[in-house]
């Protein structure tokens, strides 16, 4: 695999509008080269006889079944509210313009 050059790093830094020193160009070139090598190795590992997976272990749903249960009535909920108006919770206005 070819190494990434300082010029390529400088070009990428320019595209990203990053101020990079000469010393950083050398450092980043080496680091980016290592990253590209690691990504290439990951691509080599995948084999045709291994099925793709999203998890390393089987995942099962641990949630309970949905069941209808009684809740608060509108009157009970509004009774606990600091302010109510027209069967709704009244809250302070947060926008200055009309909706």
Automatic annotation (TrEMBL):
Top-level class of the enzyme under EC nomenclature: ligase
GO molecular function: asparaginyl-tRNA synthase (glutamine-hydrolyzing) activity; ATP binding; glutaminyl-tRNA synthase (glutamine-hydrolyzing) activity; transferase activity
Keywords linked to the UniProt accession: ATP-binding, Ligase, Nucleotide-binding, Protein biosynthesis, Transferase
Signal sequence extent: none
Catalytic activity as recorded in UniProt: L-aspartyl-tRNA(Asn) + L-glutamine + ATP + H2O = L-asparaginyl-tRNA(Asn) + L-glutamate + ADP + phosphate + 2 H(+); L-glutamyl-tRNA(Gln) + L-glutamine + ATP + H2O = L-glutaminyl-tRNA(Gln) + L-glutamate + ADP + phosphate + H(+)
SUPFAM superfamilies linked: Glu-tRNAGln amidotransferase C subunit
InterPro entries from the UniProt entry: Asp/Glu-ADT_sf_sub_c, GatC
Enzyme Commission number, as recorded: 6.3.5.-
Gene Ontology BP annotations: glutaminyl-tRNAGln biosynthesis via transamidation; regulation of translational fidelity; translation
Subunit comment: Heterotrimer of A, B and C subunits.
Cited function: Allows the formation of correctly charged Asn-tRNA(Asn) or Gln-tRNA(Gln) through the transamidation of misacylated Asp-tRNA(Asn) or Glu-tRNA(Gln) in organisms which lack either or both of asparaginyl-tRNA or glutaminyl-tRNA synthetases. The reaction takes place in the presence of glutamine and ATP through an activated phospho-Asp-tRNA(Asn) or phospho-Glu-tRNA(Gln).
Homology family: Belongs to the GatC family.
Name of the molecule in the record: Aspartyl/glutamyl-tRNA(Asn/Gln) amidotransferase subunit C
Organism: Saccharopolyspora rhizosphaerae
Gene behind this protein: gatC
């Amino acid at each position: 695999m070819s190494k990434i050059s300082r010029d390529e790093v400088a070009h990428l830094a320019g595209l990203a509008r990053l101020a990079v020193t000469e010393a950083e160009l050398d450092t980043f070139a080496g680091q980016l080269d290592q990253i590209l090598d690691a990504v290439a190795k990951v691509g080599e590992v995948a084999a045709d006889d291994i099925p793709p997976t999203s998890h390393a272990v089987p995942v099962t749903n641990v949630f309970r079944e949905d069941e209808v249960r009684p809740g608060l009535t509108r009157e009970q909920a509004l009774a606990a509210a600091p302010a109510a108006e027209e069967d709704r919770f009244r809250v302070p206005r947060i926008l200055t313009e009309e909706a």
